[in-house]
Amino acid sequence: MILCCGEALIDFVPLEGGIGYRPFPGGSIFNIAVGLGRLQTPVGMFTKLSTDFFGQMLVDYLVENNVDTSFLLRADGPTTLAFVSLPHGENYEPQYLFYANQATDRSLEPADLPDALPAEVAALHFGSISLLLEPGASSLEALMRRESGKRILSLDPNVRPTLISDREAFRQRFESWVSLVDILRLSQADLEWLYPDAQPEDLIQQWLSSGPAICLLTRGADGAAGYTASGVRAFVPTPRVAVADTVGAGDTFLAAGLSFLHKNGLLTSRAALSGMDEAMLHACLEYSARAAAINCSRPGANPPYLHEMG
């Protein structure tokens, strides 16, 4: 099982014509869990959810999409809300405005962490705003540090600049996480915001020398690249589709990538990941890009089901 650890929220996506918003279950970690469930990959979610009707909507959606909810905690308090802006252009990035003060999913405390995880949890995924908003951020970081080296760890920072008041402090914290994980996924937009004057491949090679076994870099309409610690590289172009929006595209990409790695027996060890040959890495990227393209062909974060993947 892959255990997704972090936020679950409600995305309010603008209706066509810009008059009004429609609520969608969302949050990067939540989207990845749903994406894995739809691809028939054993997955669970660990977070704290509100007992309000939005919280129940999130629980019901997880169950509907084959996600194990036995790791969920429930508590009183509001659900985090995110309003999405969808600028147009070939390579645009959605913008988000978060309402998370006193929200339940950010209130995770160290005492809420499970004392031990069952053996069937082979990998854990972390990232996004759940590693920004306290006290949940420090609690999840503690879980990451505790499980590093014991299970495969995946990280996608999914940078949200509106929630980061100190870029340098976040950059230092991000680099401390990179040293703990085995799989790292970033977008070109993440890298440009974090390291505006650096060359992406230089950074990736630096990280691979001391941290992850594999790094995945998505470039929107310009394709995706993969790198392993053993020096293997691969690239795939972005499939061309009629784009509804790009909400959840990166989450879907990573969910499909994790599903591919699981189904090919590569989430067993760092050595298995870093030992991927070019053909396997290329196949992983191709599968991930196909899933992300399907997601982009429909509104909101709406990852594909297994039967849609061909």
Could you walk me through the main structural features you see in this protein, from its secondary elements to its overall organization?
It contains 9 helices and 14 strands. By secondary structure, it is of the alpha/beta class. The chain has one domain (2-304): 3-Layer(aba) Sandwich (UDP-N-acetylmuramoyl-L-alanine:D-glutamate ligase). Strands 4-1-9-10-11-12-13-14 form an 8-stranded mixed β-sheet, with helices on both faces. Strands 3-2-7-8 form a 4-stranded mixed β-sheet. The chain has a two-stranded parallel sheet with strand order 5-6. Helix 1 packs across helix 7 (249-263) and helix 7 runs antiparallel to helix 9 (278-296). The model has no long low-confidence stretch (mean pLDDT 93).
Summarize the structure.
This protein has helices at 28-38, 53-64, 136-147, 167-178, 188-194, 200-208, 249-263, 270-274, 278-296, and strands at 2-5, 9-14, 21-26, 43-46, 48-50, 73-75, 81-85, 95-99, 123-127, 152-156, 183-187, 214-218, 224-228, 233-236. It has 310 residues and is an alpha/beta fold.
Q: Residue ranges: pLDDT <50 for 5 or more in a row?
A: none
Strand tally: 14
In helices, the fraction of residues equals 25-40%
Q: Tell me the CATH superfamily.
A: Ribokinase
- Give the termini separation: 23 Å
Main structural class: alpha/beta
Q: What's the main sheet like?
A: 8 strands, mixed
**How is the CATH topology named?**
UDP-N-acetylmuramoyl-L-alanine:D-glutamate ligase
Order of the strands making up the biggest sheet:
4-1-9-10-11-12-13-14
| Total count of domains | 1
Beta-strand content bin: 15-25%
CATH class: Alpha Beta
